[in-house]
Amino acid sequence: MSNVLVLVDHAGGKVRKTTAELLTIARRLGEPVAVYIGDGVQDALPALGQYGATKVIALTNPDLTQFLVAPKAEALQQVAAKLEPTAILISSNAEGKEIAARLAVKLDSGLITDAVDVQAGDGAGGSPVTTQSVFAGNYTVQAKITHGTPIITVKPNAASPEAAETTPEVEEFDVSVSDAAKTARITDSKPREATGRPELTEAAIIVSGGRGTGGDFGPVEAFADSLGAAVGASRAAVDSGWYPHAYQVGQTGKTVSPQLYVAAGISGAIQHRAGMQTSKTIVAINKDEEAPIFELVDFGVVGDLHKVLPAATEEVTKRKS
Ligand code: FAD
User: Fold this and answer.
1) Nearest to 158 by CA among 25, 12, 281, 2
2) ipTM for this prediction
3) What pTM was computed for the model?
4) How confident is the model at residue 319 (pLDDT cuts 50, 70, 90)?
């Protein structure tokens, strides 16, 4: 069976959910081979095996983690030359997209970014067919790469991770890094301040606040915490300086697809919808019954979020105790 490379997205050996999604997609296309960069591969093995990696290529050359992305692209080029994969899947985040672009140039291959679905193409080894959502979700585009090794970056929540339970073999792989790739050294890196809440793109429940909060995210955070949810924000809230940009949901923010998305004081502009419309269940709280968000929702509450959210928080807390 043909190899499909999946670049593992991890934090010190803790595999991110997006990698479980990529492995699930890779199984549709061929034999999933995980490429792990950095220390901690042993910590990652159970998660990689759980989602079907049959092999893990471990790259531990310290140059790969001491510099910005250029060495990683060189390393993947060398792995691809050896394994001759039929596709390479990478998470659609800022780093993943830069690696993918550099790799596409090196391999003289086509690149598709921000896929929201990837399916097997026609015939054995046929180029995968990707789906992209473009123009703020107004159009869906199906495409496939016709030149070189298909390189595809995939957005979070493009697939539900499906367990496969394999025991992957680990292969240490030596890569060389050119001096040209070692020009931007990482001098310091700090994890984002821990909030104790789930990561926005991985959360099963998200409670988001918009301009209707008037800048007070207290009720949004309290309701999120009662549900064990992540907090999101509309661009209006972020642009007003009420919440950090890292939490913005939408076209120019994060794309999310939780089981439950609660939009509080958010009108439902097309650019916000682009980031959350694939959520399984959508609930909106808005004091304007004509707000466009109500066209999208499964449940709507017409009311003042400063009253509705505390009442809902109280009810959830009461039911939990
Ligand atoms: P508003 O549209 O002002 O809506 C506020 C809502 O709160 C209203 O519906 C109002 O009825 C309600 N409300 C007010 N007070 C209360 C209350 N007390 N209780 C309950 N409800 C109340 N937006 C994004 O969100 N994400 C993006 O990534 C994004 N990218 C963009 C990219 C581009 C190129 C452009 C042009 C725009 C982008 N936008 C994005 C902005 C988008 O067009 C909207 O301006 C924005 O989403 C509006 O945010 P909002 O719904 O919080 O504010």
Assistant:
1) 25
2) 0.99
3) 0.83
4) very high
